[in-house]
Every structure is written in structure tokens, then in C-alpha cells.
Amino acid sequence: MRTAWEEAGWERLGDGVARRRMPGWDETIGVIAGSTGVMIVDTGATLRDGADLRRAIRGLLGRDVTHIALTHPHFDHVLGTAAFAGVEVFGAAGLSELLRRGKDELRHDAIRHGVARDAAAEAADLLVAPHHQVHGQLTVELGDRQVLLANVGPGHTAHDLAVLVPGRGGEPEIVFCGDLVEESGEPQAGPDALPRQWPGALDRLLALGGEEARYVPGHGAVVDARFVRAQRDALAARFGVAPS
């Protein structure tokens, strides 16, 4: 029998942990529920996406999101943030300043990728920059559950944040990777990527999660450490980085 989460389009990853692949750009949104707090990982490409996610999570859990973790500064992962009023927002060190000065670039990028002009402008104008910047690692308390935020970049961008959810009840760790890992296509190295540093970021990601973790890409199906390592090796070969 399908659960309420599955009926609403979410995939259960563990106790109190789920994710949703959004329509349009296939970006992954994560949710982590503790006894006193709820974290969402990334917020979608528009304010409407963010509002829909907020309502869906409230309907499924009976309470609101309290924390947001932004994995990197691309439009499809951050432009829904303003829909979550009063929520604590976390990002890699430097992300706040980048988002403050880069609103026009975000808006243009969203429009280039098919977001309606008015929707892109509204989301960029109201964009909320992180209140908390993660330099190394930071533990966030959600009541009976802790979540570890780790600044593992640079790689896909200069501000890549991973989210580790420790396993409980015999379940494996879960690592939300952002676009450091992609399963549904070749990893995208845009103009803001640091490709020669990307393999090193994946080494740090693997050290964070370990061999038994489930790795949740920014786009595509959940993968294992073997997949992440293969992608790391492919990126190293693609960009001429010596093996570690």
C-alpha cells in the first residue's frame, strides 16, 4: 500500500527522511523531520514551487519547515526560498554575498532555462540569502535528530554544501549532494564551476558519508558510493586531474 508521502510524489529514504524530484528541471528537494524541527534541502525554481513544497510538507507532517539548507546557488535550487517566511537558512560560506550581488544573473539564468519572466523576477527580487554560513561542518539540531551540514566544495560551484543525515534503527546514512553528483545525466560544469577542484570535493563527500551511505544527487536517482567514486574518476579524467 502506498504511503501518504508516496501519494504526494515523495520517495521515502529513511525514518523521517524523504525527497522529491521536481517537474521541469528534475532537481531534488529533501525533507528531514525531527521531533522539534523540519529541514528542507533546497527550495525549487520559483516562489510557487516553494509555496507548494511548504504546503505539501505541512500537510504531510502537520507542522512547518523550520530550517532550509541550500546546496548551491543555482536558480532551480534556491529561488523558492522566500516562500518560507521566518525560516532559518543555511548555506556554504560566501553564498549569502553571492546571492545578494547576483540576483540579476540568477533571474537571467532562470529565464534562459524556461522560467516565466515575471516569476523569475519576483523570486529573484525576494530571494532570501542564508542567515548562517557553513565554513567547515555545522550540526543542526532538529530535536531528536541531528543533521550535519558540510562545506565540501568547491566543485560544481564555489559554494557546495552537503547534508548528512545519520542513520538510525539500522538504516544507512543519507547524504544530500546537490549537483556535485548527478545521476540523470553527465555532471554539468557551467561557467561558475571549478572543474579541477571537483574531484577533490567528491573525495570529501565520500569521506563524509562512507561506503554504506545512500547518496542523493541534485538530479536523478539515489546512488551508492561506487557510483560517486566512478563519477569522481570520470570528472578527473575529463578535466585532467591526477588520481588521488
UniProtKB/TrEMBL annotation:
Pfam families: Lactamase_B. It comes from the Bacteria. SUPFAM superfamilies: Metallo-hydrolase/oxidoreductase. Transmembrane segments: none annotated. Residues 26-219 form the Metallo-beta-lactamase domain. InterPro entries: Metallo-B-lactamas, NDM-1-like, RibonucZ/Hydroxyglut_hydro. This is MBL fold metallo-hydrolase. It comes from Streptomyces mooreae.
